[in-house]
Design goal:
This protein is α/β, with parallel strands linked by helices. The chain contains ten helices and seven strands. Strand 3, helix 7 and strand 4 form a beta-alpha-beta unit.
Length: 309
């Protein structure tokens, strides 16, 4: 999608460990974005992205690893030659839907999002013909959709998932972070704090889905109350979209976490536009006038239930 950051570069490094030739696809896919406002506000950063990859290539050559041989940056017309990408909103055109995975959690709130993701990935795979694709764990449901795409369409591709790269305070690196600005960036950590609360509870032996989700919501609601007590010039309004505990392989919500299998706990929030932007304040790429949606997930690792006698 562009707006490359260290999370993306970590996937290039991951690929470089197992292959000599890497192709990086950069394409802000309109069919996975939500309407003309989001499409219009998504910045084009191809020149900057190219500079980052050139610098990374110098490091990779020095270490003897594989390198980026090409950037694939197609146009909308090249990716959607027969009909415009916004046909997805009208139920027209050629699109890939992988049900039920594309219709739950993130897909329930953004009905066309994963249809756009699956469609553009199939197009990219057909154009590039990769042996391996490297994806980031932060967009966990997306990795599940693409794994199912590869399996269902008999694609001879290995899907490798790289770990989420985070800032020191836990916030997952995301292209959307450039829209936060200073004030909303400070509050955005509520998402990972909520997920960590569920992870800690699971590691302490709590496996009930309702209990784990309630812990997440409690953390987020505490932040909502805290922000509501501040003035318009200080506060950040946070909306909870969802928290869920789901099966790692299908993203289907589960009632109880199986210790031997584990699960994934995921969440999404929105940071609403700033009510007042102070003089000199960094409000983000859109000066605080936009709503910033953040998603994240944490794996609840399988745990052995055996004991030594």
């Amino acid at each position: 999608m562009g707006l490359l950051h260290e999370g993306h570069l970590s996937l290039v490094r991951l690929a470089a460990k197992s292959t000599q030739s890497i192709i990086v696809s950069i394409y802000a896919n309109p069919s996975q974005l939500t309407g003309p406002d989001e499409i219009g506000s998504y910045p084009s950063t191809l020149d900057t992205d190219h500079e980052l990859l050139v610098a990374l290539n110098m490091q990779l050559r020095h270490s003897g690893c594989g390198t980026v041989r090409a950037i694939f940056a197609p146009t909308d017309k090249e990716m959607y030659p027969c009909s415009p990408p916004d046909d997805i909103l009208r139920g027209l055109g050629s699109f890939v839907n992988i049900l039920p995975t594309t219709s739950i959690l993130e897909g329930a709130d953004r009905p066309s999002h994963f249809v756009g993701v699956a469609t553009v990935c199939l197009k990219l795979f057909n154009a590039i013909k990769p042996d391996t694709v490297c994806l980031g764990e932060k967009d966990y449901q997306q990795t599940v959709v693409i794994k199912q795409l590869v399996q269902d369409f008999l694609l001879d591709i290995e899907v490798v998932v790289g770990e989420t790269i985070r800032d020191a305070d836990g916030l997952a690196l995301s292209s959307r972070n450039v829209f936060l600005g200073t004030r909303r960036r400070a509050v955005a950590t509520v998402l990972i704090r909520a997920l960590y609360a569920a992870q800690n509870a699971y590691e302490a032996g709590r496996v009930d889905r309702d209990e784990l989700v309630s812990l997440c919501k409690h953390i987020a609601k505490e932040e909502q109350v805290k922000q509501a007590l501040l003035s318009e010039a200080e506060r950040v309004n946070v909306e909870i979209i969802y928290f869920e505990v789901a099966d790692q392989g299908s993203m289907t919500p589960i009632g109880t976490v199986n210790h031997e299998k584990g699960a994934v706990v995921c969440g999404a929030i929105q940071l609403l536009p700033l009510e007042v932007l102070l003089d000199g304040e960094d409000g983000g790429q859109q000066d605080g006038n936009d709503t910033v949606r953040l998603i994240d997930s944490i794996l609840l690792a399988p745990r052995s239930t055996s004991c030594n006698i």
